[in-house]
Design brief:
globular; binds iron/sulfur cluster; 900 residues; single chain; alpha/beta; seven-stranded mixed β-sheet
């Protein structure tokens, strides 16, 4: 590796430090041992970053209405587009929709332009979809958007409660820290509260599979139970809080006893009691929550019901305890710092506070500062649809896929007068609707700061040169601002200058009245900024080493210094199941993909884990609905439908469904889950309800299933259903069709590519059974293969995929090619489990059985699986447990039938 650069992972809110470099051999990625978020560890997504930085699929030059344009022309066009609308319709007729993927410096200038110079607060962010409820809950309880604790608390705790978080998949490095601590200290108890039996839940000491949306009942019940059992920290409650009586009254009414909670949550009373006792009897409890809590029409109340329990016991601001918001995105926290949401102002000042508005206006020298909150994400796109917003600039996000009621969002952008999109990727569902495309720098080319879930500011540093016509987001925003007439306030020479202004503003008239203060980082020399070490805010003075925990002195940010108990009357989510839509749809992330796959989708090893859109449901529901594992099903809500592969993983309760969020119109034919989700939001935070949509499932009958692996991408959109991903040296298309070609041989030849002399074409057709297989080889090198069957019982793709890495097929491989499996003794690997070392499920099963392995470390010692990022360790443990169960059953059967 050339000299490595210390930077930060661009995916989840753990904010892992990375050492990255590039050389002739490509990009090298390793965890940064010196970074306090991860101490050198990376998950599968972080480890695969090197696969995602190539220039294929990048947006490489500005475009206006699809034609190439110069930067000057494109910037002038955007500035004029916005200025014209503002002149004619006022500042509230324009909007920015930005992203937790932006760096803090990018975020800062976008927010400054919209709120301070355009004079509207119509700037919102995809972080609204992720942690707006946590923000609102923090502000209600603490008087500011403040995360009290730090990652270390998760390893100092005696009880870790994970609620609404599949941490093992969504924050893997943090989960690994907890798991390692549990190995060292087995008495650490892990409680997981989740309707699904996720990989995280499978690792728990206690799993509470609560009914979707019933979390407030559970925590109200806990509040009541703690009081009844004398667990109130009276000194703390009396000295540092207000509102306990009202919160207790509401809790008592809604969750008077364990039986009532058990009924509301749909779980056994004994499990609830076990949880309550664990919480009550252990001083050091951390309750970490994520999207399962936040993404709810009652998300803010859920957050406050959790915080209430920590306030009642005084478990906050001390090591190993406290509520802890696990942030989804890499820089959602940075966006909050700069006030990059429609209801916030910069540096934790408040839009509703006239003194704060005056402060910011003076600091910025603003001609007109927004005087009231703007439109939050869902309302903002509704205003675009209604024509009230006539110009929108979308930066680094893909709302046509990720927002609820995604078809309406698409329609809104289709009819909007002016849509500008800054992105690093050329082809997304959103860039397809842009009038102007602005090519933005990607991870590895960008330079600035991000803040992770524990308030730790880290540097993202460039280690790749930017393509010639690509620019960083801060530069693009400032250039547009200057062309709108705001020259001097946006004349920054570097992100360091923006960061300096951000730091100075945070300290301006602060004096501890606002929690966010990084005045100690103001006035950094360029080199100091370049060398900035990861540090947790607040950092009020120069030389201050950062702040690990907040509220250690029991003082909160409300004017009286006291935290607030918030009464949380339970509300069940909108969109309850009904006769027509009897199931409850939940959505979420999978282990190896990120957002809409524009980046992770480019990594072959990440694509292998769960390679296509699926709907997971209970096996008995599948049976009664006549949908079968491996076949396709249509998932419908009152809004729309998607088609996905049926999966019965055993993780889902009866009456529930789970669909991953990652597939878009670019990588599948009918799989955007946003098209199913109602635009119902939490009334306080504006965060949409992504976890509870009434839905139904029906078979999606097709005449045939198939898959195509090919070295060259092809247009496959003329089949009934398709999903695609990038493999290592090939493209994979999963297919299904309702039309049966009259001549299969011809149909397959067309899709496998024209034959040249010297090419080989192998095929096999069994029309009676509906099986058709063909392969094209160019000079004995596999160019493409296509398998079709009436049933989805097609060969494993992994062995065939491996043949694309070969320059020439060996004789047994040619023999096995149309069988789709190795001839002779070579065994199939099965679907990928360990992305880092390419170890498949069948390989692991055989290994575990053959060597009677009982421990993930033994597996790692033999095939390395699980020894790098550890993201697959929970799945390896599940395979070990599966083998253990089988052995038990066998030995019981032998005991019962000794003569068999
Ligand atoms: Fe990146 Fe994984 Fe760390 Fe999250 S846990 S920051 S995705 S390496």
């Amino acid at each position: 590796m050339t000299q490595s650069v210390r930077t930060t992972c661009p995916y989840c809110g753990v904010g892992c430090g990375i050492r990255a470099g590039s050389s002739g051999a490509g990009v090298q990625i390793a965890g940064d041992p010196a970074h306090p978020a991860n101490f050198g560890a990376l998950c599968s997504k972080g480890s695969a970053l090197g696969d995602t930085v190539g220039l294929e699929e990048r947006l490489l030059y500005p475009q206006i209405l699809g034609r190439r344009a110069s930067w000057d022309e494109a910037l002038a066009h955007v500035a004029e587009g916005f200025a014209t609308v503002i002149r004619q319709h006022g500042p509230d007729a324009v909007a920015f929709y930005i992203s937790g993927q932006l760096l803090t410096e990018d975020y800062y200038v976008a927010n400054k332009l919209m709120k301070g110079f355009i004079g509207s607060a119509n700037i919102d962010t995809n972080s609204r979809l992720c942690m707006a409820s946590a923000v609102a809950g923090h502000r209600r309880a603490f008087g500011g958007d403040l995360v009290p604790g730090c990652y270390e608390d998760l390893t100092l705790a005696d009880v870790v409660v994970l609620i609404g978080s599949n941490t093992a998949w969504c924050h893997p490095v943090l989960f690994r820290r907890i798991a390692q601590e549990k190995e060292r200290r087995p008495q650490l108890q892990l409680v997981v509260i989740d309707p699904r039996r996720t990989t995280t839940a499978a690792s728990a000491d206690l799993h509470l599979p609560v009914r979707s949306g019933s979390d407030v009942f559970l925590f109200n019940g806990l509040l009541t139970w703690l009081r009844r059992h004398g667990k109130v920290n009276t000194g703390f409650v009396n000295g540092h809080t207000t509102g306990v009586a009202a919160a207790l009254d509401v809790a008592e009414v809604s969750a008077p006893d364990i039986e009532a909670v058990a009924r509301a949550c749909g779980i056994e009373a004994r499990k609830i009691e076990e949880f309550y006792r664990l919480f009550a009897d252990n001083e050091r409890v951390v309750t970490a929550f994520s999207q399962g809590v936040n993404q709810s029409s009652a998300g803010t109340d859920k957050v406050n019901s959790i915080i209430n329990c920590h306030l009642l016991t005084g478990r906050i601001g001390r090591p190993g305890m406290g509520p802890f918001s696990l942030t989804g995105q890499p820089n959602a926290m940075g966006g909050r710092e700069v006030g990059g949401m429609a209801n916030l102002l910069a540096a934790h000042t408040e839009l509703e506070n006239p003194a704060h508005r005056a402060l910011v206006q003076q600091f910025w020298g603003s001609p007109r500062l927004a005087s009231r909150p703007g439109l939050k994400a869902v309302d903002l796109f509704e205003a675009v649809h209604a024509g009230r917003i006539k110009a929108i600039w979308i930066m680094a996000t893909n709302p046509v896929v990720s927002l609820p009621d995604a078809e309406r969002v698409k329609a809104a952008l289709q009819k909007c007068d002016f849509v500008a999109v800054s992105d690093c990727v050329a082809r997304t569902d959103t860039t397809a609707l842009a009038h102007v495309l602005l090519p933005a720098a990607a991870w590895g080319e960008k330079d600035g700061t991000v803040t992770n879930s524990e308030r730790r500011i880290s540097r993202q540093r460039a280690f790749l040169s930017r393509p010639a016509e690509v620019q960083p987001d801060w530069w693009i925003v400032c250039q547009v601002a200057q062309r709108m007439g705001f020259v001097e306030p946006f004349s920054y020479a570097s992100p360091a200058e923006i960061f300096d202004e951000h730091a100075r503003l945070s300290a301006c008239e602060n004096g501890g009245t606002r929690g966010f203060d990084i005045g100690g980082l103001a006035g950094l020399e360029a080199q100091e900024y370049a060398d900035l070490e990861p540090v947790q805010w607040p950092i009020p003075r120069r030389g201050h080493g950062g702040t690990q925990r907040l509220f250690e002195d029991g003082r909160f940010l409300h004017p009286d210094g006291r935290a607030r108990f918030v009464p949380t009357p339970p509300r069940m989510p909108a969109g309850a199941a009904n006769e027509e839509f009897p199931l409850v749809l939940n959505t979420g992330r999978i282990r190896d993909q990120w957002h809409t796959m524009t980046r992770t989708g480019r990594s072959p090893r990440l694509a292998e884990h769960l390679p296509e859109p699926f709907v997971d449901l209970h096996a008995q529901d599948a049976l009664s609905l006549a949908v079968r594992d491996g076949e396709l099903a249509r998932v419908s809500s009152p809004l729309g439908s998607i088609v996905a592969r049926v999966r019965t993983s055993g993780e889902i309760a009866r009456g529930a469904l789970f669909v991953p969020i990652h597939w878009s119109g670019v990588n599948a034919s009918q799989a955007r889950p946003g098209a199913l989700i109602h635009a119902v939001v939490d009334p306080i935070s504006g965060e949409p309800e992504f976890k509870h949509t009434a839905a139904r499932v029906a078979p999606f009958p097709v005449e045939w299933y198939g898959f195509l692996l090919t070295r060259t991408a092809i247009d496959i959109t003329n089949v009934t259903w398709w999903a695609t991903l990038q493999g290592d040296g090939f493209f994979r298309y999963e297919l299904a069709g309702r039309e049966v070609p009259s001549d299969w041989s011809q149909w397959m030849r067309q899709r496998l590519g024209a034959l040249d002399s010297g090419d080989d074409y192998l095929d096999y057709h069994d029309p009676a059974s509906g099986i058709h297989r063909a392969a094209r080889l160019v000079e004995n090198r596999l160019a493409a293969c296509l398998f079709v069957s009436r049933r989805p019982d097609l060969p494993e793709r992994s062995w065939l995929a491996g043949l694309f890495a070969k320059d020439a097929l060996e004789a047994p491989e040619r023999v096995g090619l149309l069988a789709g499996r190795p001839a002779g003794t070579q065994k199939e690997c099965g679907p990928l489990v360990c992305s880092c070392f390419g170890v498949g499920r069948e390989t692991l099963r055989r290994l575990i059985a053959q060597h009677e392995l009982t421990d993930a470390r033994q597996v790692g010692a033999r095939v390395k699986a699980g020894t790098n990022c550890g993201s697959c360790l929970p799945e390896i443990r599940a395979l070990l447990a599966e083998r253990h169960r089988r052995s038990l059953v066998t030995s019981i059967q032998e005991e019962l039938n000794p003569l068999d």
